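Crash report, auto-generated. Payload:
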Amino acid sequence: MADLATYLLTGLGLVFFIAGTVGLVRFPDQFSRLHALTKGDNLGLGFIALGVAFQAESWAQLAMLALIWVLALLAAGTVAQLVARAALTEQDKP
Amino acid sequence: MTVWLHIVAIVLLASLGGALWRVWRGRSQADRMMAAQLIGTSGVAVLIVLAALQDWTLLVVAFALALLAALAAVGFVTSQSPDGAGDPEEAHPPKGWRDRGRNG
Amino acid sequence: MSVALDITLCALVLGVGWATVAGHGVFRAVIFFITYGLLLAIVWARLGAYDVALAEAAISAGLTGVLLLAAHGRLRRLNASQEVPLHLNLPAAVVAVGIAAGLGWAWFALPAPTAPDLSQALPQSGVGNPVTAVLLNFRAWDTLLESVILLAALLGLWMLARDHAWDKPLGLPYHARPGGVLASFGRVLPPIGLIFGVYLVWAGADTTGGAFQGGTVLAAVCLVTIMAGVLHAPRVEQAAWRAALVLGPGVFVLSGIAGAVFAQGFLALPPALAKPAIVTIEAALTVSIAVTLVLLVIGPPDEGEQDA
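Recovered output after restart:
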C-alpha cells in the first residue's frame, strides 16, 4: 500500500517536473517561463517528497522532508518575485 | 521499488538537462538565472530520491541545498541593481545613491 | 539500473563542465559553474562521501554563486568586456591536458594505497564520525594550517582596499525596500539557518556535518542578512570581529601546545579528553570559518564605484 502511494506520487511529481522544464524551454517570453518553472517545479518537488515520505523510517525523516519542501517554497516565492522585478526594470531601460 | 526510484532519479536528471539548454540559449540573464533555479530544485528532488535509495543522511544535504536555494538569485538581483547593492523592488534607486552613506 | 543513473550523472557533469569553459559570455559561464557545483554535490552523494557532498552543496549554492555574480555585476557597471576570448590559450591547454594525463597515469600506475584501518583507531578519537576523527585528531595538523590559510586569504583581500576607504564598512553599502520581499527574506531565513548550522557542528561529531559545513551555512545566511540590508557589515577596526577571526586558529594552537606540554606531543589529544577538546575546537573554528567566509565574499572596504 505504501509502495503504491510512492509509485503514484513520485510519478505525479515527475509529470510536474517535466512540465516545468518544457515550459522553461518552450514558452515565448521570460515572464511566462518564470511562471512555468516556479509553479511546476515546486509542486513536483512536493509530490516527490510526499512520495518518498511513504518510504521513510522515522518521524524525524518525515519532518525533514516537510521542512525541505517549505524551504524550497520560500526560496521559489522570493526568487520569482525578485527576478521578475529585476527583469522588468531591465526592460524599461532603453 | 529500488528500480523505480532509480528511474525517478534518471528522469529528474534528464529534466535538469533540459533546463541546461535554456542556460545555454538565454536570451536574457533573467532566463539563465531562472533555469539555474529550476536546476537547484531538481537537485533537491534528486537528493531526496537518493536519500531513500542509499542513506537517509542525504536528507541533510538536500536540506542545505533547499535552505540556500535562493542565495544565488538574491546575489544576482542585487548585483544587477544600479549600484550593485540594491533591491529590485526599490523601483527607482533613491536619489543621490552614489553619495549616500550607510545611514543615509 | 544504478549504472544508468551514474552514466546520466557523468554525462551531465562533463556537459556542464564543457559548457562552462566553451562559448563566450561571462554570465553564461557563471551560471554553468553554479550548476556544476550542484551536480558535483550529487556526485559526492552517489560516491557515499556525504560530508563532502554537504560542503560542496553549501559552498557552491551559498557562496561561490554570490561571489561570481557580484563580480559579474561589477564588471558590467565598469563597462568592462563581457566577452571571453574564443581563441585557444595553447600554453594553458597544454598544462591542463598534461596534468589530466599525469593524474590519469598515476591512477593506474601507482599501487592502491593501503589505508590504515580506521575502525580500530576510531574509538580512541573521541568521536564517531570518521571524517571528523581524521580532520581534528589524526590529521589535525592539516586542519590547523587550513584554518590559517583562510585567515591569510582574507588579509590578502583586505590589502586591495584603497587608503581612504580603510575605515569604511566592508563591502558595498547594501540597502533594500523596507518591508519588501528581499528585506523579509533576510529576516525569515537566518533563524532557520542558524539552527541548522549549529546542528551541523554538533552532529558532526557522530554523523554527517562538521565545523566547515556548519560554518559555511552560517556564513551563507549571514550573507543574506547583509545583502538584504538587515545587518550592516563590520569595519576593519572593530576588535570583536577581529577576535572572531582568530578565535578558531587561536584555540586550535593553544590546545596543540597543551598537548605538547601535558600529552604525547603537539596537537596530541589524550583519548579521555578527546571528545570535549574536539567539540571546543570545532565550536571555535566554526565561528572563525563563518566570519572569515562572510568577509571574504563581501570584499574589502569599499565606497562603490564613484570614481569609475
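Post-recovery validation: Residues 2-80 of chain B form one domain.
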